[in-house]
Amino acid sequence: MTATYLDAPAATELILSAVEAGEAVAVLVLMPPSAEAGGRIVIRQAPDGTLARVGGSGDDILDSALQDLARNAMDGADNAREGLHSLGTDDDPGVRFFLEIHRPQPELVIVGAGHIAQPLCSVGALLGFRVRVLDDRPEFATRERFPEAKEVVRIDMADPFGQVSLTPETHVVLVTRGHKYDYACLRQLLSRDDDVRYIGMIGSRRRVRAAFTQLIEEGFDRERIAKIRAPVGLDLRAETPAEIAVAVAAEIVLLWRGGSAQPLAAQERILPRFFKAAEGVKASDTD
Amino acid sequence: MIRTEDVALYRALDAKAKAGRPCALATVVATRGSTPRKVGAKMLVDPDDGLVGTVGGGCGEGEVLEAADEVLRTGIPQMVRIDLTKDFLSWDPAVCGGTMDVFVEAIRTRAEDG
């Protein structure tokens, strides 16, 4: 079989259509010194997990190894990170591919279209989220108030997510005008079979405690309750709506990237270490 | 955060390929140590219309642009190693502390196919 690598424009069209369809996609780019360096194989993953490969090396064994690599990468396996991968045997060092993964755009659903929702929608869109804003009040749930939102939806607060699709990639932030609405949302989220990726709820200590108490009394699963971020956001002493939006967005990035939330200066301690080392030198000079 | 910059770059690549504009694509494929961009960062070089994206923001980008120029002339892709481990007090911009391997390739335009 001859190789059927895609060129970059053909691969690009496939990548863009996969991203638009909400599918994950792996791209394998053949690296030098192979004669066909720059040739690409694109492997799309449908939401049900099935893979569809376009382009090939012409070698069935290599193609199936590449497909395994792509599958592992899309599953988030440690041995299949983005970057260079050599596929070959001890006798034959084989060929090198650059592996890259594109995941579907994650979603941010903001319930409550009030003064915090506005900057949160902007920051969310800036971070690359597909943002939807939900509220029952027609004067708040308007496109004019949320120009960066993909969608502004009028909902019935008695059944907040009744008409709204949620996926395991959805991040939900509850900033409604009253704790009874936030609570109705929590109940509905915890009653679903699937967890969403993130639930954050704004609120004072008292309101949050009351909500948790009520959920436990109603017999909801404790592990799922424990995943709710309430009060939502990192402690920045945020006061204005924009500052609160940044604190909430920072928490979402933190969970996404797995950071420590510590200031880098405090963590790296470059200057304190420098002073300590300098003192050590001085001390040994006098010995 | 979700590489929306990739989507923007791919859209630009798609548009340029369809418009028949020859351009080069640079992709960071490997890094060691501290580097300004991570694996997967990309830059599209259109000699007549400037850059989309960045692989270094000044750090080592000159070398990538030179390679892009050559790749556009020869059509042969290149792997460029960018060394950012210059001594700090040299006041060279390349003091981030690491090295990056950047794959630079010419993008075939659709016009060439037809």
Compose a concise summary of this entry.
The complex is a heterodimer of chains A (287) and B (114). By secondary structure, chain A is α/β, with parallel strands linked by helices. Chain A has helices at 8-20, 60-74, 117-126, 179-191, 205-217, 222-226, 241-257, 264-268, 270-286, and strands at residues 24-30, 40-45, 51-54, 83-87, 95-102, 107-111, 130-135, 151-154, 170-174, 198-201.
Word description of this protein:
The complex is a heterodimer of chains A (287) and B (114). Chain A is of the alpha/beta class. Chain A has two domains: 8-102, no CATH class; 107-257, Rossmann fold. In chain A, 38% of the residues lie in helices and 19% in strands. Chain A has a five-stranded antiparallel β-sheet with strand order 3-2-1-5-4, with helices on both faces. Chain A has a five-stranded parallel β-sheet with strand order 8-7-6-9-10, with helices on both faces. In chain A, α3 runs parallel beside α7. The longest helix of chain A has 17 residues, at 241-257. The relative contact order of chain A is 0.08. The mean pLDDT of chain A is 91. By secondary structure, chain B is an alpha+beta fold. Chain B has one domain (4-108). Chain B has helices at 4-19, 61-74, 110-113, and strands at 23-32, 42-46, 50-53, 78-83, 99-107. In chain B, β2 (42-46) and β3 (50-53) form a beta hairpin. The longest helix of chain B has 16 residues, at 4-19. The model of chain B has no long low-confidence stretch (mean pLDDT 84). Classes of the chains: A alpha/beta (287), B alpha+beta (114). Chain A binds chain B through residues 7-9, 12-13, 15-16, 19, 29, 31-32, 37-38, 82-84, 98, 100, 102-103, 105-106, 127-129, 253, 256-257, and chain B through 1-4, 6-7, 10-11, 13-14, 17-18, 25, 27, 29-30, 39-40, 77-79, 101, 103, 105, 107-110.
